[in-house]
Structure formats: C-alpha cells, structure tokens
C-alpha cells in the first residue's frame, strides 16, 4: 500500500513537472528552447536603452531569467519591464562582484555603448573609452566567471563606405568614423578571445533601428534626439520647425543618404535567435541585420507625411561628418541560417509604430 502511494505521488509530481515544461515551451513557441534543470541568467548590458529594452521584453516573454545593467546615461529606468535591474557602469569598480557574484550568469547580450556617428567624430575619446574600455572590462569578467556565450551588438558602421550594395558579411571593413572603428576593434578582440578561451559569440551588425514596441509602452527616446525618424516625428508634432536634411549632394537618386531601416522588435528577435544558435552549439558567427530595402532621407520624410497626415517641412543642411552615402544590408545569411524573418518590413508600418 505504502509502495503504491509512493508510486502515485511520484507519477503525480512527474505530471505536474511535465505540464510546467509543456506550458513553458508553448509560451516560447519555437523561438527559444531552454536547457533543462538549470537557472540560466542572461545579462543584458544597456538593457534600459532602446534596442536593449526591446530585447529584454522578448526574453522575459520567453520566460528567461534576465539581469539588466545600465548606467542610465542614455537608457531609461521606465523602459525596464522586468528582470533584475542594476544601475551601474561597466567601468565601476563594484561592477563585477555585484552582478556576476550575485547571479548565475550564463550568457551575455552586450548593448551598452555610445552609438552616435556624428558625436563620435567630434569626441572620439568618449567612444574609445566607453565602447572599448567598458567592453574589455566586461570581457575580463566574462572570462573570469566562465561565461561561454555572448551576443554582441555591432553595427554596419564597421564597413565604412561599402564595397557592394547590399553589403555582405564577407565585405571589407574600413570604418569612416570612431563609432564604427571602436565596434570593429571589439569584434577583433572577441575573435582572439574565442580562440584563447572558447567564448563563442554572435556579432549582429545592425542597420538603422527604428519604430517602437507594438504595445506602445516603450520606444525610442534619446536625449538629445539625433536619429532621423524620431526627429521627423517631432517635426510632425510641431516640436521642431522642420527636418534638416544632412546633405543633398550625395551620389544617390535624390542626393540624400540612403539607409536600411529595421524595426526594433525584429532586431530584438534576432538576438534571441542568435542566443538559441549558440546554445545549440553553433560556432561564432557574424550576421548583418537590415530589411534589405534602402530609403533616402527625403523618402523617409515623404512616407512620414503620409503616415502622420502632417505636411512636415524639410530644409537642406550641410553633410554630417562620417556619413557614408548608402548603407543597405543583405540579411540573407541570418534568414537562411537562423530562419530570421522581419515582421515589420514596411517603412510606413515602422514609422506608424513610432508615431
Ligand atoms: N539625418 C538627417 N537629418 C537628421 C538626422 C539624420 O538628414 O536630422 C540623416 C543622417 O545623415 C543619415 C540618416 O538620416 O543619413 C540616418 O541617420 P540616423 O542618425 O538616424 O542614423 P545613423 O545612420 O547615423 O545610424
């Protein structure tokens, strides 16, 4: 009798455990499957920033254990929608013990960085300091605490003036500004870090992140704002008199720069797919992320007029230092290898979510 009760209890416990797992897998869909029997915390540096906060939301929705660190220089506490939050700078002395020591960090998604092309040309040391010194410090701790998987938020500014359009991951990298240069320097360091310590990485080289979370709860909020789409929308709201178009004498059909705009949630999902591939044992990889379509600055303003119904004014201003004429990605590699599919690939939809 005692034997039967014990057997029944074991069976019952097993069913409860299985149902928990099934529910979790159903919730995660096919995107993310965790390893069993382990609390795997993911450290998201810069997780209160624009792309970081959108990625953290996707991770939380996939039932992941998320630790966010952000110095709130560019990020916002209000954009942190869950997980454990630490306000600190990666260069702080207290950084390693308070975060790596208190948590079982198994993976890192590293966003924390300065990311303005124009500012980087004016103040390169700020970029070398924040983007490189911080990352080297983080890497030291990753090695010390035995973390083996890293997704690194890189940029197409690593390519400089492109050799081909659309740009392929195998194309040459000759950055035209300190922002791209510092991101490329970190990529190069990581290659050797992998060789020496077996820390596997995925570099995601992004194009122009744009749009806002579909819930409307978070979006793009840089202060001061320098990015085109929010500036165009500020003009539509009457917060600016007009949009300054930085140069209309580039070698493009309408003379203004062409960029590849990608919805921030599509970017966030790509980080999750990248982590999943590392968990499945794929080696270190580099992927471009764009939606493969280029839009000129003038086209962005025109489409924003259609979306908002406001006759947004534009004026022509001098070129911005460090800006290549055309940046458009080929995302074929990530589409075929990680099955990434952008959901919001229509610029009007992207602008509408931001609006
Ligand atoms: N741009 C512009 N006026 C602005 C802001 C940006 O003409 O007020 C242009 C900028 O020169 C670039 C494009 O818009 O060609 C996208 O710039 P953004 O700063 O949004 O992103 P970036 O390409 O620097 O990552």
How are the SSEs ordered, and which strands pair?
Elements: H1 2-28, E1 41-45, H2 50-61, E2 65-70, E3 84-87, H3 95-101, E4 105-110, H4 117-122, H5 124-144, E5 149-155, H6 178-197, E6 200-206, E7 208-210, H7 228-236, E8 243-246, E9 258-259, E10 261-263, H8 264-279, E11 285-289, E12 295-296, H9 297-308, E13 314-317, H10 332-338, H11 347-354
Parallel strand pairs: 1-2, 1-4, 2-3, 4-5, 5-6, 6-11, 7-10, 8-13
Antiparallel strand pairs: 9-12
Helix pairs in contact: 2-8, 5-6, 7-9, 9-11
The protein binds uridine-5'-diphosphate.
3D architecture notes:
The protein is of the alpha/beta class. The chain has a domain at 1-38. The protein has 11 helices and 13 strands. β5, α6 and β6 form a beta-alpha-beta unit. The longest helix has 27 residues, at 2-28. Mean pLDDT is 89; it is low at 16-35. The structure holds uridine-5'-diphosphate (UDP).
Outline of the structure:
This protein is an alpha/beta fold.
| Sheet/helix structural class | alpha/beta
Strand content: 15-25%
Largest sheet: 7 strands, parallel
Number of strands: 13
Total DSSP helices: 11
Give every kind of bound small molecule, once each.
uridine-5'-diphosphate
**Mind telling me the C-alpha Rg?**
22 Å
Q: How are the strands of the largest sheet arranged?
A: 3-2-1-4-5-6-11
Order of helices and strands: HEHEEHEHHEHEEHEEEHEEHEHH
Through-space gap between termini: 67 Å
What form results from the Cα inertia axes? globular
Stretches with pLDDT under 50, minimum 5 residues:
16-35
Average pLDDT across residues? Answer: 89
Helix fraction bin: 40-55%
């Amino acid at each position: 009798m005692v034997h039967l009760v014990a057997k029944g209890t074991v069976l019952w416990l097993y069913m409860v455990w299985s149902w928990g797992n099934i529910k979790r897998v159903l919730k995660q869909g096919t995107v993310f499957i965790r390893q069993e029997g382990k609390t795997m915390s993911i450290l998201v540096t810069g997780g209160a920033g624009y792309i970081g906060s959108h990625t953290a939301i996707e991770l939380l929705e996939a039932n992941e254990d998320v630790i966010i660190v952000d110095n709130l220089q560019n990020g916002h506490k209000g954009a942190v929608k869950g997980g454990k939050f630490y306000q600190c700078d990666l260069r702080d002395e207290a950084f390693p013990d308070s975060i790596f020591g208190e948590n079982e960090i198994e993976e890192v998604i590293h966003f924390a960085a300065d990311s303005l092309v124009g500012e980087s040309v004016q103040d390169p040391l700020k970029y070398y300091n924040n983007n490189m010194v911080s990352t080297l410090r983080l890497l030291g701790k990753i090695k010390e605490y035995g973390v083996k998987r890293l997704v690194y938020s890189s940029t197409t500014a690593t390519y400089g003036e492109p050799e081909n359009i659309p740009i392929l991951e195998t194309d040459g990298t000759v950055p035209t500004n300190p922002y791209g240069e510092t991101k490329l320097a970190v990529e190069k360091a990581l290659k050797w870090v992998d060789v020496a310590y077996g820390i596997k990485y995925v570099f995601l080289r992004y194009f122009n992140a744009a749009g806002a979370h579909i819930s409307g709860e978070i979006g793009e909020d840089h202060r001061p704002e320098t990015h085109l789409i929010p500036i165009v929308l500020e003009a539509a709201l009457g917060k600016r008199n007009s949009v300054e178009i930085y140069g209309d004498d580039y070698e493009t059909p309408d003379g203004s720069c062409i960029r590849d705009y990608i919805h921030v949630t599509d970017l966030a999902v790509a980080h999750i797919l990248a982590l999943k591939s590392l968990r499945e044992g794929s080696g270190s990889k580099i992927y471009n992320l764009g939606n493969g379509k280029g839009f000129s600055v003038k086209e962005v303003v025109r489409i924003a007029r259609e979306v908002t119904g406001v006759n947004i004014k534009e004026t022509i201003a001098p070129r911005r230092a460090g800006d290549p004429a055309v940046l458009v990605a080929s995302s074929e590699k990530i589409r075929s290898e990680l099955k990434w599919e952008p959901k919001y690939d229509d610029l009007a939809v992207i602008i509408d979510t931001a609006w």
